[in-house]
Design brief:
Layout (H helix, E strand, L loop, with lengths): L2 H10 L2 H7 L1 E4 L7 H11 L3 H6 L2 E3 L4 H14 L7 E4 L12 H7 L2 H17 L4 E2 L23 H16 L11 E7 L18 H17 L4 E4 L3 E2 L2 E2 L4 H11 L5 E3 L8 H4 L5 H11 L4 E2 L3 H11 L5 H17 L12 H7 L3 H14 L1 E5 L11 E4 L24 H7 L5 E2 L11 H13 L2 E7 L18 H11 L5 E6 L14 E4 L7 H9 L64 E8 L3 E2 L5 E9 L5 E11 L10 E10 L4 E8 L6 E2 L5 E2 L3 E8 L5 E8 L2
Parallel strand pairs: 1-2, 1-10, 2-3, 3-4, 4-5, 5-6, 6-9, 12-13, 12-14, 14-15, 15-16, 18-26
Antiparallel strand pairs: 7-8, 11-16, 17-19, 19-22, 20-21, 20-25, 23-24, 25-26
Length: about 725
């Protein structure tokens, strides 16, 4: 349709039909089973007419069902307007990839793009049109369960991943490429900064910090073309995001130039009431529509009150029309007026979903996301060694993460299965092993197996429900039973390799004396094969942390790009500086950290000049040598510090990275270009500019271990 045709369609709609376009309902409302449909209808006080007019749908699954629902919907819609089928496709559809925090640790943008591309293809042939992804919330507190959905603690890295995900989901021709889906960037804004790491909690920060650290990821996704934005549950400067006119009208619409659809998170409009900014559903509807929220997800503040608000001249009909037109435009951008069933294809669905090709891609990307945190010459394992695989995660299929909506645990590969597939010998217990309260028989069996083995792979971690939405934890250590098991195993065999399945950085006290620690996150459908490949050297670890691991939970939030203070801690026994008495200031494993089976050495760090004008650049070069007999990948990381700023600046900020492959004993020179634009930041008056002065430029294998030189920016 042309824009004029969309406007003509809008003009044909009644006020009730317009309001209906702003309502999103879940799959139950379109079920053929009366008991599934009637209960939710009663709960929300909806009529059949309301359901028939609801503009978008959440959580429909499968091509056959998607086709049925769309057909019935259009038959019941007076103007034949199609619905949009949306869902949470976070890190894979049926083929599940590593959680986004793991994908972030790959530092591989093409891998992220491929994840989105495969996810979109499986979702599209299954009838879906929109995914609620990527989540680009900056995260600094691992107590928050939803860190698993983010790509980490750094604005620069998050922004690059945001772009990659959007391009992978949407492709270059969303309207005609039926293997693609529209992307919804979330959660706008600053949801990841919830105080205390407690989900849905208040966020409190300055506008300057919001702009400097938290908004760049969303902006990058929008610049890449994301079609939708989802509101966050939290407050922004005291105003809940879903009713925050400044955030959506001024920042998102005017400053960022976003003209797509804004959708509330589940129930977020009605939550303006318990937030204490709306007295009732009518006022909640007023605040949300005036803020610019186009779609209300799974509550009925709009349905019940918008018509009356317009009749009372509290809300203008033109405000409603703007929202409806954006929704119609999205339907048009998806090609739904010409092809209401779009990519839904029952036959193709069977061929594409969970295909061998997709499983192979999942295995490769899972390997790229697994971080080797520690290795005291015990890895890689030899297939000739006698290895005991013990612990609750040894043969567990709880490896796909809690946000894998269509993923099935019984289709995932366990660690023991993965080791068996690569042909390695191992022993494993027969007793079922609980994560929290293992039986004495299971413990005794594990200890007996460990005693007879050359090395022990002790498979530990979280169960999937322990991270994700509404899964904040004040204590991010492993369960006590797992720590006790570690002690029992170590008493009979000190050659312990700990593997971890988890959705957040952990406090590793209690298992940190292991000879090796492998952070696998929740790796997805091919978890066991990917982890076995790492353990046995079939794949050389290349992942680097996208979020710091604390020494203890008492340090959090602990992150690499912290602001300096007037009494900075360096080293030694200084008393009156910013420090703890009982623990270091610094992360156990910092941002960017990860080991390899290769040994990389950095030399010949050079700057093309030690000063530059605003229209000039400085070229930074470093030589990296693989001084081992094993080919490997290294992620060369560039950090910059503004020594003197108009406001206090972080001690370092990631400004570039390059992932290189080096054969045994090979050298490569890596170059970065520093421009004046790279040195800009948000000042106290909210302007984005650079300062003349001295800058540190740092290069290294992680945010802690860097080489440093300086240059000056002249103005």
């Amino acid at each position: 349709m042309e824009q004029k045709q969309l406007i003509d369609l809008l003009e044909q709609m009644t006020l009730d039909e317009k309001v209906g376009q702003l309502l999103q309902l879940a799959a139950e409302f379109y079920s053929e089973k009366a008991e599934e449909k009637t209960g939710p209808m009663t709960d929300l006080g909806l009529t059949h007419e309301d359901i028939n007019n609801a503009g978008t749908t959440l959580g429909i699954s499968g091509a056959k069902e998607a086709i049925r629902v769309q057909k019935a919907y259009m038959e019941n819609n007076r103007l034949g307007i199609p619905t949009i089928l949306m869902a949470d496709i976070i890190h894979g559809f049926r083929t599940v990839f590593p959680i986004p925090l793991g994908l972030g640790s790959s530092w591989d943008l093409e891998a992220a793009k491929k994840v989105a591309e495969v996810s979109a293809k499986e979702a599209a042939v299954s009838g879906l049109h929109v995914t609620f992804s990527p989540m680009v919330d900056l995260v600094r507190d691992p107590r928050w369960g939803r860190v698993m959905e983010s790509t980490g603690e750094d604005p620069f890295l998050n922004s690059r991943f945001a772009e990659a995900f959007v391009k992978g989901y949407q492709g270059n021709d969303l309207k005609n490429d039926f293997f693609r889906v529209a992307a919804c960037v979330k959660h706008f804004a600053a949801y990841g900064a919830a105080i205390g790491g407690r989900d849905y909690n208040t966020v409190n920060m300055s506008e300057r910090q919001l702009r400097d650290s938290y908004l760049p990821g969303y902006k990058a996704a929008l610049d890449a073309g994301a079609k939708l934005v989802m509101t966050s549950f939290n407050t922004v400067d005291g105003v809940p995001a879903t009713g925050n006119k400044w955030l959506f009208r001024d920042v998102l619409r005017k400053e960022f130039g976003f003209d797509g659809v804004v959708i509330s998170d589940w129930g977020a409009v009605i939550e303006l009431i318990p937030h204490g900014v709306a007295a009732d559903k009518k006022q909640a509807a007023e605040l949300a529509i005036k803020a610019g929220v186009d779609i209300e997800m799974m509550t009925t503040c709009y349905t019940e009150n918008l018509k009356e608000l317009i009749e009372e001249n509290i809300v203008t009909e033109s405000t409603l029309d703007e929202a409806v037109l954006r929704i119609l435009t999205l339907k048009n951008d998806l090609g739904l007026f010409e092809n209401p069933h779009r990519g839904a294809d029952v036959i193709l669905e069977k061929e594409v979903v969970l295909s061998k090709e997709h499983r192979d891609i999942a295995r490769d990307i899972a390997r790229k996301s697994i971080v080797l945190l520690k290795n005291e010459h015990v890895l890689p394992l030899s297939k000739l060694e006698k290895v005991a695989i013990v612990g609750p995660a040894a043969d567990s299929h709880d490896v796909i993460g809690v946000w894998s909506w269509q993923g099935k645990k019984d289709e995932a590969i366990s660690l023991a299965q993965g080791v068996a597939q690569i042909g390695a010998e191992y022993v494993i217990g027969k007793e079922a092993f609980d994560y929290f309260k293992p039986s004495q028989a299971a413990i005794d069996e594990a200890v007996a197996l460990a005693k007879e083995a050359d090395k022990v792979v002790l498979a530990l971690g979280e169960e999937d429900w322990m991270s994700g939405e509404a899964s904040s934890r004040s204590d991010i250590r492993l369960p006590q039973a797992q720590l006790d098991l570690f002690d029992a195993i170590q008493a009979v065999n000190n050659n312990i390799i700990v593997t971890l399945y988890n959705g957040r950085p952990l406090d590793l006290k209690g298992i940190d004396s292991a000879k090796a620690i492998v952070e696998a996150w929740f790796p997805g459908t091919e978890a066991g094969t990917a982890l076995a490949d790492i353990l046995y050297g079939e794949y050389n670890p290349s992942a680097r942390l996208s979020m710091s691991f604390p020494e203890t939970v008492g340090q959090v939030p602990v992150y690499y790009n912290y602001d300096n203070t007037g009494r900075p801690y360096k080293t030694g026994d200084e008393k009156y500086v910013t420090k703890y008495l009982d623990v270091s200031n610094f992360a156990k494993y910092p941002f960017g950290f990860g080991l390899s089976y290769s040994e990389f050495v950095y030399t010949d760090f050079e700057l093309s000049s030690h000063q530059m004008n605003s229209d000039q650049t400085v070229t930074v070069s470093i030589t990296v040598e693989n001084q081992s007999d094993i080919s490997g990948q290294e992620t060369v990381q560039l950090y910059i510090r503004d020594q003197i700023g108009e406001v206090v600046r972080p001690v370092k900020e990631l400004k570039g990275f390059e992932k290189i492959t080096l054969q045994a004993h090979e050298k490569k020179t890596v170059q970065f270009t520093i421009t004046e634009e790279l040195l800009r930041y948000v000042h106290s008056d909210q302007t984005f500019a650079s300062d003349a002065g001295t800058f540190d430029v740092m290069i290294g294998s992680n945010s802690r271990d860097v080489l440093t030189k300086t240059f000056k920016l002249l103005k």
